[in-house]
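Researcher: We plan to redesign the surface later, but first we want a full-length starting point. Tokens attached.
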């Protein structure tokens, strides 16, 4: 069985204001490219176009709004990203967004939905990133991204400057979390209230990753086969493997579990948009820590596009005759 060549569109989003400005997470896209992502995707037979890095407007006056930080910058950046992802999807490509911090999922998922309609979202993360602007303990929007996207939470979201363009576009029943292990009380309450499907690290331990992924695709495909948006936070993986990230949490996915998730989603044939976020070289203590984080990010992306640990070969491979 040979995979069909997909068209892939890569967007770099060097943006950090969903957490601390100039934190280092804006270096993510170029580091992941420098580790050979494009070349290695091409080796897998993918037709890839790099749309380059987005540039984001500097906003001089951006005082916190009700404790929420960099609201105007995050709102504007995500509007730019949403348009860019929509354009990639209109080009018939699988969108790959390299972050940057996880607030960028707002624009990435919004743009994806604007192009294709209803989506299923698989959110792989140590955190749920579903605080509302009124429950956030830190004020950082990377911990709130999902709250702006869910239909079910729209009555809980106050009006914020540069956020008026956002239309909620994901239903709680079309969302699955994998890898959770560090949640705020409000987040846990919201997930229970909305009945969101969650495979926390406890479920990964109990069921094993193969069963978790089987149940994930059964759950998401039970009603209709919607295009899947995978939003992958590198902090889902255990910090012993991917230490160079802003909010590491002990007890994460192994490298193998992390890669298995991508292999499984690739095989559904429904993967339509991918985010890889929160790679932050400034948070790596050593060069090895940074390299391990970046190369894991690359391997997760390759898994999304057909790389198999059993090996791969081109569809037109010919065995030489003596
Ligand atoms: Mn996250």
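Model: Full-length starting sequence:
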């Amino acid at each position: 069985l040979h995979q069909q060549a997909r068209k892939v569109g890569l967007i770099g989003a060097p943006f950090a204001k969903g957490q601390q400005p100039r934190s280092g997470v804006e270096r993510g896209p170029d580091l992941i490219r420098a580790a050979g992502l494009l070349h290695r995707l091409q080796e897998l037979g993918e037709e890839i176009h790099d749309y380059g890095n987005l540039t984001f407007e500097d906003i001089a006056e951006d005082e916190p709004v009700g404790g929420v930080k960099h609201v105007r910058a995050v709102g504007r950046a995500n509007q730019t990203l949403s348009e860019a992802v929509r354009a990639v999807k209109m080009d018939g490509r699988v969108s790959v967004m390299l972050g940057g911090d996880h607030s960028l999922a707002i624009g990435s998922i919004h743009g994806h939905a604007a192009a294709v309609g209803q989506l299923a979202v698989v959110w792989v993360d140590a955190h749920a990133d579903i605080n509302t602007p009124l429950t956030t303990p830190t004020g950082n929007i990377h911990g709130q991204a999902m709250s702006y996207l869910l239909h079910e939470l729209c009555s809980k979201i106050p009006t914020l400057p540069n956020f008026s363009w956002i239309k909620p576009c994901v239903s709680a029943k079309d969302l699955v979390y994998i890898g959770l292990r560090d949640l705020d009380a409000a987040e846990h309450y919201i997930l229970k209230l909305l009945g969101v499907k969650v495979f926390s690290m406890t479920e990964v331990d109990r069921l094993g990753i193969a069963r978790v992924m089987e149940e994930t695709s059964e759950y998401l495909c039970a009603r209709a086969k919607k295009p899947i948006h995978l939003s992958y936070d590198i902090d889902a993986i255990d910090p012993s493997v991917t230490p160079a990230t802003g909010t590491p949490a002990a007890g994460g996915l192994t490298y193998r579990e992390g890669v298995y998730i991508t292999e499984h989603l690739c095989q559904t044939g429904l993967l339509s948009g991918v985010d890889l976020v929160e790679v932050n070289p400034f948070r790596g203590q050593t060069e090895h820590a940074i390299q391990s984080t970046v190369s894991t990010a690359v391997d997760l992306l390759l898994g999304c596009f057909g790389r198999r640990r059993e090996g791969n070969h081109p569809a037109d491979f010919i065995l030489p005759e003596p």
